[in-house]
Design goal:
The protein is built from 14 helices and no strands. Helices cover about 75% and strands about 0% of the residues. By secondary structure, the chain is mostly helical. The protein has one domain. About 10% of the residues have low confidence.
Length: about 350
């Protein structure tokens, strides 16, 4: 009878421990942390690109419109000179002079010619300015405490600025070039320190944390230690709160830039380019139209100045303005009221 083999004894299988609640929480916080770093990097790039576009367009406009602006300035000066001589030299009735002054003021308020400050208003401004300066210097300590950049020794830093400074100091301690043991490391640390300094000056906590991760200089933790995991979770939770605030600040800055005249110009340029036109050509055409309007107003004032126009015709206002479409007049008035509100 054949011998039966004894059954092979089963080896005990190792039990895989399920991740604890702390491990799961840490994983979730770390995923949020990485997502926030990417969002901030993307938004900062978007902001930097928009600001660069603003600068580029402003530079193009400045150089392209120099001759046109010189023409406009010359016309503007001529109109002011004619009005000044009309009001100071012509024999006018009180009511007629008042109406002429109203026309002159209307042209300034509408932005057609540059505003001229009355001597009386200037004196009042100087008086109030002087009074404010006296008040400020009378309470110099209070004044200094409210100025940007002034920080009293007892003034508490915000939690965010404290956090940024602590990361800056820790990274600077690690990567200071003077602590390098060889020339190659010194060169590498010098480049890293440039990034650290820039991030600190920009108040960019996200970039400091990226540098920390990139060079693996963060604090190591024991994944089997509940205390280590708890500390790591608390640290990530706090960092994520700061990163959320930084992301919101960047979004707010971008919105603010887009609402400036320069930012609106970027949007207009994009629209024009989208329709296949050259924005600079469109701008030049608009400025030439503006020159023709101002030139007609100059001729209108000059004709009255040289007695080629009656007072009655003059008081009717410039023909060019009367012939503008209703839409253009409404747009001009809307901009005028916006400027007055500002």
């Amino acid at each position: 009878m054949p011998r039966r083999k004894a059954p092979t004894p089963k080896r005990p299988t190792a039990t895989t421990l399920a991740p604890s609640a702390l491990h799961i929480r840490l994983e979730g916080l770390d995923a949020e942390h990485q997502r926030l770093l990417k969002q901030i990097k993307k938004k900062r790039t978007e902001l930097d690109n928009f600001v660069e576009q603003m600068r580029s367009i402003a530079t193009q406009i400045y150089h392209r419109t120099i001759p046109t602006r010189e023409k406009l300035q010359a016309l503007d000066q001529e109109i002011h000179t004619f009005f000044d001589e009309i009001l100071s030299r012509k024999k006018l009735g009180k009511q007629t002079k008042h109406k002429i002054q109203q026309i002159y003021l209307s042209l300034q308020v509408a932005g057609i010619i540059s505003p001229q400050e009355d001597d009386e208003d200037q004196e009042l401004d100087e008086l109030f300015e002087s009074k404010e300066e006296d008040d400020e210097f009378d309470s110099s300590s209070e004044y200094r405490q409210h100025q940007p950049g002034f920080e009293s020794p007892s003034a508490a830093r915000t939690d965010e600025s404290k956090k940024i400074r602590s990361y800056f100091l820790r990274l600077a301690e690690i990567f200071h070039p003077d602590k390098a043991t060889d020339s190659e490391t010194q060169v590498r640390h010098t480049e890293i320190m440039k990034e650290i300094n820039k991030a600190y000056q920009d108040g960019d906590l996200a970039r400091l944390l990226e540098i920390e991760q990139q060079h693996e200089v963060g604090e190591t933790i024991d994944t089997n230690s509940e205390d280590d995991l708890t500390r790591k979770c608390a640290r990530l939770e706090q960092q994520n709160q700061f990163l959320k605030a930084q992301h919101e600040t960047l979004k707010r800055e971008l919105r603010t830039f887009k609402k400036t005249p320069e930012g609106e110009m970027v949007s207009e340029f994009r629209k024009v380019e989208k329709h296949g036109f050259d924005p600079m050509d469109e701008l030049s055409a608009q400025m030439e139209t503006q020159i023709s309007v101002i030139a007609e107003i100059r001729d209108y004032v000059r004709d009255f100045h040289s007695a080629k126009m009656t007072i009655k015709d003059f008081l009717r206002g410039p023909q060019i303005l009367r012939s503008l479409s209703q839409d253009m007049m409404e747009d001009m008035l809307e901009r005028m009221f916006e400027e007055m509100d500002d």
